[in-house]
Amino acid sequence: MGFDLEALREAVKTHGKVVRVVIAGIKGSSPREVGAAMLVWKDGQSGTIGGGTLEYQAAEAARSQTVATRLTHHTLGPDMGQCCGGAVSLFSEVYDLKKVETLDDTIIARSASGGATPLSVKRVLAAARSQGIAPEPRLIDGWMIEPVHKPARNLWIWGAGHVGRALVDVLSPLPDLAITWVDTGPERFPDVIPAGVTDLPATKPAELVRHAPPNAEHLVLTYSHNLDLELCNRLLLHDFRFAGLIGSATKWARFRSRLAALGHPPDRISRITCPIGDPSLGKHPQMIAVGVAAQLLRPARQNELKKDLSA
Hints:
Elements: H1 5-15, E1 18-27, E2 37-41, E3 44-47, H2 52-63, E4 69-75, E5 87-95, H3 97-100, E6 107-111, H4 119-131, E7 138-140, E8 143-147, E9 153-158, H5 162-171, E10 177-183, E11 197-201, E12 217-220, H6 225-237, E13 242-245, H7 249-261, H8 266-269, E14 272-273, H9 285-297, H10 299-310
Parallel strand pairs: 9-10, 9-12, 10-11, 12-13, 13-14
Antiparallel strand pairs: 1-2, 1-5, 2-3, 4-5, 6-8, 7-8
């Protein structure tokens, strides 16, 4: 997890003054990890630091915050209606558009009380920049250090029908996914596109495959079997980390035959996964979306993808 600069920028553009509350330190058990954050504005909020009384009180305090930065400490005991038994430190900062534009786009370090940068912080920043390795979120000598969040995975969803929309609803809140959503026209998409999702209308979607990063993951679920087939063909000519096709075993048998006729060898065709998701959950779009999301996020899938990358 890191500092989601893009989410903060969008929130400030939409709501004006926004307070970002981040877990800066933990002792014992905690409902969330260091670096977990939420954004709070006058009549709403996004993100979570773990819910419950802690989050409620932190959000209320953020709405009345008058100082630029504040570091507070909280015991997670019976007084809060929580039995974690631990303690957390919260770093709360007020942002407007002007302040957001001053932030670094790689590592953000700031103090709760001002003053010169201590040597301990300078060393962490120097090591991170010289080695090209993002530091873990942490509080050092009153300074909060966080790497700017960069989504680790590129996911392309081809199709904005019922299942495509359900998938975007399920997957878009996940911080490690940068989602590109493709369909044949703007009328195919909902009026509101979730944050972190890039909608891309194109009369010929298959022409966009060449623009996808070679390590991208793809879910093919358009309204047209012919378009699905062309996307599979283009993906096999391109490269990808994972490709899943919605459909039955019968559909996949036909596709395998047609892809082979297009010149793709069997081992290459086998890189596409079909069917996708968990058929035992049912065929309702949201049920399909939950199954596909679990398939993408399951640790075993991650290990398999890592093996593919190292091959």
